[in-house]
Sequence to fold (651 residues):
Amino acid sequence: MSGQLVSENPWQRRLRTPWRGLGLWFLGIPATFVGLWFITVVSMVTSFVGILLFPSATMLLRRRLDRYRGRIGRWTGHRIERPYLPQPDTEPGFQGVMRRFIALICDPATWRDYLWVVADPFVALFTAALPAVLIGYGVWGYLLAGFAGKLIGDHGGNDWYAYVHVHHGYGDDPAQLVLTAATGTLFIAAGFLIGPKMLDVYGRWGQAILGPTEKSRLALRVRHLTETRSDAVDASAAELRRIERDLHDGAQARLVAMGMTLGAIEHLLDRDPEKARLLLAQTRESSAQALHELRDLVRGIHPPVLADRGIVDAVKALALDHPLKTEVTGDLPARPEPPVESAAYFAVSEILTNAAKHSGASRVWVDLRYERGMLRVTVTDDGHGGASLDNGTGLRGIERRIGTFDGVLALNSPVGGPTIVTLELPCALSSPKTSPS
Amino acid sequence: MRVVLAEDLALLREGLVSLLETHGFEIADAVDNGPSLLKALVDHRPDVAVVDVRLPPSFTDEGLQAALEARRRIPGLPVLVLSQYVEQLYARELLADGTGGIGYLLKDRVFDTAQFVDAVRRVAAGGTAMDPEVISRLLASSTRDTPLGRLTPRETEVLELMAQGRSNAAIAEQLVVTERAVTKHTANIFAKLDLPVTDDTNRRVLAVLAYLNR
Fold:
């Protein structure tokens, strides 16, 4: 049913799900109050107060329902993404308020949220909470058989437990008592047995109402693509500027200088051959320097080992030049597409530089794998940890750049270490692996 | 001395041929792609091969792969690899079998004819010729190693030149000291790094490279 609950065996799951279902049902209590507040605000929409309050009420509702999304995802394995359409940028003044109000009120997800709040208590009662209710009813059977049935009968009460009539004389009829206990046992057993199935059904219901529709999924995708495309354009423009500057200040300037020196040598050749010889040596030095700079530039654009051998060997070459002891393991059945390979390479390169600069680590491990259509790179260091995406370590920049390829970056860096950075890039493996001979 | 040459740029190939011929080498074959390089090496069994790393048809490290394969078939076949860039990874692969007769130089080193010809002769004689850039990067990434930190600056200089494959005489000339002084430095280095002492230059160089490549 899910990848989340692999640590549980089926029996553990059966034991736990009734109480989880009950927990989900109880979430309905605060949600109902929020729903009441929401509909109150909606009823005030004709006055300006309603318009002012509407965004905050909607947000309150959304936060409330995020709890359902989280729990359903954790317990049923039905992962539910937030379905909300992107909101307009906040603007000051009346126009901004109106724009935000209209955006929210036009988002179908807002109304589906309300539908959830109204309908869920009933749906949950007959799905997620049903096992717990059955178990409760079973326990009530035991209580009746134990003493409650006798009490009711003796006081002239009249009740039914399923098909067992509880009335005067019930407490003295062993057959009835055994029948009641047996029925209670059946209810309890049924409660535990149907638990996982019911929770699964509830998960589907959650996915249907709380999850994104096809339309909002597309809208979210468009926004993501727009963002990553503009990131990609910015990044490539910056890269071109850097290359232009490097060429201008480096190789180009050296070639100009060499040309001038050669001119001087031409003049000196007859008058002062000794000086000319000196200048020639200098020119040769300059040409070597220019070549050196061009080499560094090429390495920064497309590293030779990456071009020759692919990402695993390229990262190995990177590790050899790294100041920290770096171990690289990895085996890919074939090479990823060149752009993905290059993005992953530069991401790893930057993460390694970060590790050397900030982590205080003495060793680093890099692992490269290809699993389920993803290139997965894990970089682990034994440093002091405590890294975050936003404290200027450049991880945010890496995240943005691999975002162009729908790649994701996960950081796990508890204070005290170790730090684990994981990159995942969806890609196809194109060219088959060439054997090293 | 018979040479097999592999270089895909015609201009550079002609240049290398005439350079080597004027210095008394005999060109057994000059090829421009990986597969024919391997064939030429196996057929001619030259005294030394001068090989460009990047060759057609794939324009990846085809030359290096052909050279490694040829050395697997003919152990100890002297190969001098030339490249636009040097990579520690490739240097390691070339040195991996520990038999010597290996050179790995930047193409720019060809500018200095005397040095280049010397390197070719050294490799042909079973020695090594490692580019200064490989060695300096090797040393830079080995600074975490404490025994290296115990070397004096002069000893580090000697180590660097030794790792490039130079003889004591050449090192003495470069550093403008006597050969005796170099011998003394060398003994100190070997003692500090805890390496077995040997008089054979080639074996000494390989020991140093193996140490740095750990």
In short: Chain B has a mean pLDDT of 89. DSSP finds eleven helices and six strands in chain B.
